[in-house]
Amino acid sequence: AKVERTFIAIKPDGVQRGLSGEILQRFERRGFKLVGLKLIKVSEELAEKHYAEHRERPFFKGLVEFITSSPVVAAVIEGKGVVATARAMIGPTNPLNAPLGTIRGDYGIDIGRNIIHGSDSPESAEREIALWFTPEELLDWQATIAGWIYE
Ligand code: DAT
Ligand code: MG
Asked: Of 10, 47, 59, 125, which is the most exposed, with the fewest CB atoms less than 10 Å away?
């Protein structure tokens, strides 16, 4: 696996429930590095672009309403294999099907309140990072602990 970046967003339910710190901590503890982080009130335009692939689905309108209803914590994290590993840490879309130990499996019940988004592929990650962050908001920095995480 190579070093890559992925986009995660703690959705309104996760932020309202006070889970933001807990969730970010899971990625930090795993060894992934934050390179972008902000609290954002999502516009309808951003929500529709972000979820463009679901435009024709019956749940699309509700999804956009939900994601724009209350602040979201948006983050970009970096590390070896982070796109697939973040998805594994998040768990399946429906929290009731999500194994314990995943974020959705530990904290969620309903599919429309599944706490967190994570990019599903390197291509999605690239698109979503560019959609949510300006280049200046993404920081290149060296984690001094890197040698204790990577050999
Ligand atoms: P994921 O968030 O796991 O990538 P997705 O891309 O298929 O899942 O769908 C995006 C979001 O849309 C998902 O997190 C919750 C909502 N959603 C998906 N399928 C749904 C459904 N059948 N009913 C209601 N909401 C749904
Ligand atoms: Mg998805």
From this structure: 59
